[in-house]
């Protein structure tokens, strides 16, 4: 995390003050331990950010406005540049930093600090893709993983909660946290200014759009309205998924990518969502679909039916309809079979209900140690009568 002058926690002021005193930038300030009084942090010598700002103005030729905008990271960079023994700016870069007239002359080349600020601003929301492009591997946002600086397995936390590439490592030497630019600099062993130039080069390349969470509308459209909008975009045709199953059904509702669009409903006809099945068999429920108690109707329910046949999937339901008489419903998956059957029994207590579940039972030797099948599955339906 990068702190700004004027709002620097006292602990960090002490750390910076010690570094300043070590190099002789600030003298005659006696550092004492942080004291705690009634839960409030106080500092015995009243050393505060004003001293810090004055030091930046005195030793780096900055105006008060510039000093107040200076971040801790930037101050440390300039401090290192002031003292050649420390790893930091070159003399030429430092000279550019302290040119007094730079702020007033728009024709002069950009100062390193201006470049750093510009890069940071441009990189907001892009650090997840910027860092790998700079050769710095990080886990997904909010996740733990190996530290690109010191290694390990899960000591590093890529926080990025403020979209500045914020991170923290439990094992790195102090400072063990920072933003994306700090991470690039430390991983590569270069100055922050050099890291800014590296990131600037990457920013010139096309980057994926940042994934910004979309705020859901308080008055979201009802699922039925959204499904009917999908239905309006669908066309009638033959599903490649069903053809591979040996089913020729030319009047299926298809989306642009060839996926089947199967509308789900309850016994009273209320639309509850939809299932899509891609040509390769990948099945998904449309977001917001209510699965429990819903089904895909294969036959219209009219009058008082004598027989209901409830299957798991849609393809099985189409097959069963060709073989048996009765109202056929597809319950989407096995977990929903009994729920649909119970609702049917409640509404039609005298009807015969047949559960045409997939025949998924296998001998123990037909599965590996993880439970996966080692033989081809027989998907023929297994019939169970429920009265």
* Biggest sheet details: 5 strands, mixed
Order of helices and strands: HEEHHHHHHEEEEHHHEHEEEEEEHEHEE
Number of helices: 13
Please state the oligomeric state of the protein chains shown.
single chain
DSSP summary, beta strand count: 16
GO molecular function, one term: zinc ion binding
Protein name: DNA primase
GO biological process, one term: DNA replication
Pfam families: DUF6246, Zn_Ribbon_Prim
Key traits:
3 domains; DNA binding; Phage_T7_Gp4_N; alpha+beta; DUF6246; 13 helices; disordered C terminus; elongated; 387 residues; disordered N terminus
Walk me through what this model shows.
The strands form 5 sheets. Strands 12-14-13-15-16 form a 5-stranded mixed β-sheet, with helices on both faces. A 4-stranded antiparallel β-sheet has the order 3-4-5-6. It has helices at residues 10-22, 49-60, 64-69, 72-82, 91-97, 112-123, 127-133, 180-188, 192-203, 223-233, 240-244, 314-323, 337-347; strands at residues 35-37, 40-42, 144-147, 151-158, 167-169, 177-178, 235-237, 252-254, 260-265, 271-277, 283-285, 296-297, 307-311, 327-330, 352-358, 381-385. A hairpin with a 5-residue loop joins β9 and β10. α6 (112-123) crosses α9 and α8 crosses α9. 33% of the residues lie in helices and 18% in strands. InterPro entries: DNA_primase_Znf_CHC2, DUF6246, Phage_T7_Gp4_N, TOPRIM_DnaG/twinkle. One of its GO terms (molecular function) is zinc ion binding. Residues 142-181 form the DNA primase/helicase Gp4 N-terminal Bacteriophage T7-like domain.
């Amino acid at each position: 995390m990068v702190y700004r002058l004027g709002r620097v926690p006292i602990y960090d002021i002490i750390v910076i003050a010690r570094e300043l005193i070590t190099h002789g930038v600030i003298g005659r300030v006696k550092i004492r331990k942080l004291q705690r009084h009634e839960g409030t942090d106080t500092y015995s010598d009243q050393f505060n950010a004003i001293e810090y700002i004055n030091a930046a103005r005195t030793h780096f030729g900055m105006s008060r406005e510039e000093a107040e905008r200076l971040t801790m990271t930037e101050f440390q960079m300039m401090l290192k540049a002031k003292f050649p023994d420390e790893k930091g700016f070159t003399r030429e870069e430092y000279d550019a930093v302290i040119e007094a007239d730079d702020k007033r002359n728009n024709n002069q080349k950009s100062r390193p600090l201006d470049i750093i600020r510009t890069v940071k601003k441009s990189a907001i929301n892009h650090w997840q893709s910027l860092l790998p492009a700079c050769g710095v591997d990080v886990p997904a946002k909010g996740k733990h993983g190996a530290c690109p600086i010191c290694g390990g397995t899960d000591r590093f936390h890529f926080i990025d909660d403020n979209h500045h590439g914020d991170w923290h490592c439990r094992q790195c030497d102090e400072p063990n946290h920072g933003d994306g630019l700090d991470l690039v600099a430390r991983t590569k062993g270069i100055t922050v200014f050099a890291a800014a130039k590296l990131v600037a080069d990457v920013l010139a390349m096309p980057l994926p759009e940042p994934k910004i969470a979309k705020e859901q509308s308080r008055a979201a459209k009802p699922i039925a309205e959204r499904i009917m909008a999908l239905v309006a975009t669908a066309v009638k045709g033959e599903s490649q998924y069903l053809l591979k199953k040996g089913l020729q059904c030319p009047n299926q509702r298809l989306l642009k990518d060839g996926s089947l669009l199967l509308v789900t409903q309850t016994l009273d006809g209320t639309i509850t969502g939809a299932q899509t099945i891609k040509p390769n068999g990948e099945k998904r429920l449309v977001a917001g679909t209510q699965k429990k108690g819903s089904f895909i109707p294969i036959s219209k329910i009219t009058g008082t039916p004598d027989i209901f046949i409830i299957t798991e999937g849609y393809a099985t339901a189409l097959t069963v309809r060709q073989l048996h008489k009765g109202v056929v419903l597809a319950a989407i998956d096995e977990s929903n079979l009994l729920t649909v059957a119970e609702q049917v029994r409640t509404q039609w207590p005298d009807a015969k209900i047949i559960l045409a579940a997939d025949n998924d039972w296998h001998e123990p030797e037909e599965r590996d140690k993880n439970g996966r099948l080692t033989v081809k599955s027989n998907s023929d339906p297994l019939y169970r009568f429920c009265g």
